[in-house]
Amino acid sequence: MPVEGHAASPFALDPESVATLDAIREALLDPSPRRIGRLDQWGLADTYETYAEIAEYRETPIVMADGTRIDAALSMPRNLAPGQTCPVVVMPAPLVAIGRTAYLGMLPRLALGGYAVLAYSQRGLAASTGEIHVAGPQDVDDGVEILDWLTGLEGVDPERIGCFGASYGAGTSLLLAARDSRVKAVAGASAWGDLFASLYENDTLHTAAFEALVALFGEERCSKEFRGVIEKIRSNTVDDEVREFARVRSPKEYLKAYNDHNLPVLMTTYWHETIFSVPAVVDFFQDLQSPKSLLVQIGDHGNGELPGLLGLIAKPTETAYRWLDHHLGGSAGNGATPQFGVRSEYMHNLLSELSHASWDDYVLPRKRFHLGAASGEADATMAEGQPQPGWTRSLDATGESSAVVVAPQLIKTGLAERLGLPHTYKTGAVGGLALAWTTAPLKQPMRVQGELELRVTIAPEMAGDATIVAYLMDLNEATGNARIITHAPYTLVGRSAGEATTVTFPLQPAHYVLGKGRRLQLIIDAHDPFFTDANTTPSTLRLSSPENTEAYLDIPLAPLF
């Protein structure tokens, strides 16, 4: 099953949203009745008429010390009294072709909340000149220069500066805050914690996501350093240069700065996030000692905040308004108090929400399901109780994927999940391309909530590297349909032919509700187009469960009620 999304970027806005933002920009630059009246077709005329009365918008390129022109726009409250100052939100752009224009829909709420706003496109992105450095030290230097420029403006309170960013903008915001203590709060939507873990999960490259991001950057606009890293990643060369490139761009490396500054950090992510590592976000969140909040939603990268960026109601942006208000003293969040700790939705109920004080309070204890031998044509068993040693099963690595993949479409599969339309898999059609283990029917509704771990022993037929991909499915035996709960790849590196290695690795955390009578099904495949496949030559992988290192899957499972 192919992973789609390379020809047309999965990050691209639909034409209607682009047209809306274009009309908003024109009305902001020329708040005449004619321009504002055009927004009536989207029901936005009154909103931007009010905005024009209380704030002024102007586009103002900011020239860096090396001559690079950063495309920026400033929104300032009108009629500040002499000596009066206001809080300010700095908004580095997400990784979209329109750059900082993606945030235009948020300006009215922030203006009504008494904020000045400085939105900008990082160097090399959209209308900014220079080369793309991927939230590297040069981008952080630019952020510091932008803060210098901003704090020199009359009316800006240098003690009340916060950052909001989505995706690329979230990472830029966190890295800037690590460098410059003038940033007093960060709200990052679809953020990352560890860039290397996002590229390589269990030594397996996230190929589809990486290539989609590179296509969006545009290689011709990337720095020489980044182009070199791109080529190394494509050739699966993981050396010190690649690791250092990722390290300096990872917020987890700057925990001491965040904790020393007691920086309030809000982050949002998704259960089926296919761009940035969710476990790395969770690890970063747990290690933060400053005020913090984590929101985990249904779907994939950027799904939840997109309506909010366009000016509609969305949980990530509403949460961000309250977070910034609490720490900077504005009123964009309508006086609502922010929530600390962990907030989560469970799949696939968009209206659900649970709150917990910490990640440890959130996760359920894990139950151990032992993987058993196959019997005839039936799936192998997966059950609690006694370990099941002594079996061996053969997995053919053919370079062809089974009926199950992580996501048929980057971003868009997760968006369908948010709309209550999760992708349906026919796991009975995996045939000889994958192995399956299945539980007995559940006797009552259950929930998977937290972190999972798989252990299995692998012996590749040929020397070299070998890849497996594990998926946990919600199987409806009556229809043969299944839905994905979570997944993870694993690549054995540099093994001898026939050498058996026991591996233990986490699957992505999950929050999923299962109905009575459903079965949990573990599928292990040797190929998924989402990942780089180390099984470059057709061969066989032998999976087994030796005595004392028996195969299992630990699942955080409990009754729903």
- At the first level of CATH, what is the class of the largest domain? Alpha Beta
Number of strands: 27
Largest sheet: 13 strands, mixed
Q: Work out the count of structural domains.
A: 3
Q: So, the CATH homologous superfamily of the largest domain? A: Alpha/Beta hydrolase fold, catalytic domain
Query: What is the general shape?
Result: globular
Assign the CATH topology of the largest domain. Answer: Rossmann fold
- Span of the ends, CA to CA: 37 Å
User: Number of helix segments?
Assistant: 16
Assign a percent range to the helix content: 25-40%
Throw out a few tags for this protein.
Jelly Rolls, Rossmann fold, globular, single chain, 3 domains, 561 residues, disordered N terminus, 30% strand, 10-stranded mixed sheet, alpha+beta, 13-stranded mixed sheet
Give a description of the structure:
The two termini are 37 Å apart. The protein folds into 3 domains: 16-56; 60-194 and 251-361, Rossmann fold (3-Layer(aba) Sandwich), CATH 3.40.50; 367-559, Jelly Rolls (Sandwich), CATH 2.60.120.260. Helices cover 26% and strands 30% of the residues. Helix 6 links the parallel strand 7 (156-166) and strand 8. The chain is globular. The longest helix has 15 residues, at 15-29. It is an alpha+beta fold.
Question: What's the structural blueprint in terms of helices and strands?
Answer:
Blueprint: H1 15-29, H2 33-38, H3 45-54, E1 55-59, E2 62-63, E3 69-70, E4 72-77, E5 86-92, H4 107-112, E6 116-120, H5 137-151, E7 156-166, H6 168-179, E8 183-189, H7 195-199, E9 200-201, E10 204-205, H8 207-217, H9 224-234, H10 240-247, H11 255-261, E11 265-270, H12 278-287, E12 292-297, H13 306-309, H14 315-328, E13 341-344, E14 354-356, H15 359-362, E15 367-371, E16 380-383, E17 392-397, H16 412-418, E18 425-426, E19 434-438, E20 446-460, E21 464-476, E22 481-495, E23 501-514, E24 519-525, E25 539-544, E26 552-555, E27 557-559
Parallel strand pairs: 5-6, 5-7, 7-8, 8-11, 11-12, 12-13, 16-19
Antiparallel strand pairs: 1-4, 2-3, 4-6, 9-10, 13-14, 15-16, 15-26, 17-25, 18-22, 19-24, 20-23, 20-25, 20-26, 20-27, 21-22, 21-24
